[in-house]
Amino acid sequence: MLALSCAGPALLAAPAAHAQQVAAPVADVPRGGEAAIPLAEISVSATGVPTPVTQTGSSVTVLTSDLLQAQQVRTVPDALQQVPGLNVVRTGGAGGQTSVFIRGTNSNHVKVLIDGIDVNDPSTPNRSFDFSQLQTEDLSRLEVLRGPQSGLYGADAIGGVISFVTKRGEGPPKVTAFAEGGSYGTFNQGGRLSGASGIFDYSFSVQHLRQAALPVTPFELLPPGVPLRTAFTDIRSVSTKLGAQLTDSFRLNTILRFSDSAYLDQADGGFPYRPVPYRNLNDQQQLLMRGEAEWTPLPGFHNVFGANYAKFDRLFAGPLDPLAPPTPSTYLGERTRFDYRGDVQLSPGHLLLFGAQREDERFQATGIDRSNGNTGGFAELQSAITDRAFLVANIRHDENDQFGGATTFRIAPSYILPTTETRLKGSVGTGFKPPTLSQLYQDYPAFRSFGNPALRPEESFGFDGGFEQPLGDRVLVGATYFETDFRNLIQTAYFPTFSTSVNVGRAVAYGAESFVSVKLTDTLSGRVDYTNTVTKDEIAHQELLRRPRHKVSATAIWNPMPQLTLTGTLVAIGSFVDGNRDFSVPRLKNPGFTLVNLSAHYAYSDNLTLFARIDNLFDQRYQNPTGFLGAGLAVYGGVRLTTF
After folding, report:
1. CB neighbours (10 Å) of residue 600?
2. What are the residue boundaries of the TonB-dependent receptor plug domain, all occurrences included (predicted)?
3. Helix (H) or strand (E) holding 44
4. What pTM was estimated for this model as a whole?
């Protein structure tokens, strides 16, 4: 989907009473100084088409561009910190490798989509996505869908789906630009040209994030005489989104996105970890392209034909000793996909989705050039059974060229009780993740480590159930219990003369997410989320690494005057088990941390906005993961210009 308006009007026409119960991360953020107007929260990722969250039982969080702009969140990892059920792990600065754990699942059990393009990276050993390059300036919304989702999304959606939708051009031509600077040698800029004319709409965005001097290596790891080398980040992104409404029933959409990042950090002198007086370079490039044709031959019957191409180039070099130039390691991943999706309104309030995909991926590095493919098809029924009872159910079958077939499903009902207006919701579903090309075929003869072409997919079965209860017109509370079981997890097995990957792992993750959302006045609102997560490796009988049991996140927005918006964010992560920087100590206790961020956003005029923010207000010293310092107290300020 390229925009909310692309598909799904049939279900939105179903009875939408009680939509005021939707729990947003905070109340709606006003634009241009206007008072906040409560709106029904819409999700696209939960069903595949725009659907009120009250009409699905899935656990989904939606963050809009208005909220992110008010909070002045510049990077996606910082935005995701506030989402319940997530642990965001970043190796240092803004450009450090960033992984996301959903409800205790592995970081590679998350399917990531940008404007419908699958961006899980086939060039990495576990096909995980590195979130470090993503910035927020061109995002319209991001959605986090928790729980197994392969019934609709296929491979890799074992733990959940994170979907990003970029902004689409509309209205008269408009140019926006911003610049900000601050702590750690930070200087960020961005700009966007967008609009619509006749049958065409367009959006062009550029973003640049630079952080020149962030201490990342803890001082206690530095040997005597080795100086601290601060991390340097430089990320540049350009994106284009074009559309043409050729007729009332036919539309074309295109997307082009390119990012290039360079990240330098303290170099490693060997195992165990020994910093040296030089730096390592991690350079990444991502190219994403998608074309779509939308056709609506009959009212209530919508079709989308699409093609994707994604390319991932990674280069690692170090240590960058000028006396001994290193030989860089390079990795290339490519993915192409052709897809079709249709949705037809069977009757008022009942929508049938169906589709098919063909996907091929390739991995190229020293000693390996391999590819694999997958063909899948799915169907989904969305039903507004009454104005209080809703059901979403899907089923999918995939045929992988390497290991054969996999059938998955998901069922998500929702019901609103009369009188109390309590919303009961739940879901049950399955997921699978095929072995990566690296796990199947990549050999390291010098270390007697070899790929295993006989690997099978990892699998999950998960369910959740909960409620949302309004307490008057200004308070909403809710809680959800979740549980996911994993089997056939791929792990490294060590034999007398070699090592390889095998399907021996089993694990379970369960817990609860609860929240209180309050609109204290027409100008002051907030929300507090608490997540409790318990994980267990059922083979080793140990808690899984980097899964904190306790997480609290809180957000607040205050408009003391029409032009001024103040926001506050708190994220508290409890203690968790981790390894040290190179895992020479495989299990230790990380004490956790608490971060408080503040921001101020003043609309001086329709064309000029001034903003400032403070991150890590209390200068909390923390490491997540262990061995990599997070940023301390930081102050930033800037200006945003808009022309009409």
Report:
1. 16
2. 54-161
3. none
4. 0.94
- Cα-to-chain-centroid distance, residue 355: 24
Q: What is the pLDDT of residues 75-128, one digit of tens each?
A: 999 999 999 999 999 998 899 999 999 999 999 999 999 999 999 999 999 999
As a whole number of Å, the end-to-end CA separation of the chain is 28
Query: Hunting for tokens 């750690």 — which residue is that?
Result: 184
C-alpha span between 116 and 255 (Å, rounded): 10
- Distance between CA 131 and CA 96 in Å, rounded? 9
The helix or strand, by DSSP H or E, that contains position 568, with its residue range, turns out to be strand 564-573
588 vs 15: CA distance, rounded Å: 53
The pair of structure tokens assigned to 107 is: 């970081």
H or E element, residue 583? none
pLDDT of residue 41: 83
Question: Residue 80 in contact with residue 571, Cβ under 8 Å?
Answer: no
For 446, the 3-state DSSP assignment is: helix
Question: Element (H or E) spanning 311, and its range?
Answer: strand 301-317
Model confidence pLDDT, tens digit, residues 484-523:
999 999 999 999 999 999 999 999 999 999 999 999 999 9
User: Do 512 and 532 touch, CB atoms closer than 8 A?
Assistant: yes
By the 8 A CB rule, do 279 and 240 touch? no
Token digits for 90? 């970043």
Topology of domain 4-643, CATH: Maltoporin; Chain A (2.40.170)
In 167-300, the DSSP E strands lie at 174-182, 186-197, 200-214, 231-247, 250-268, 275-298
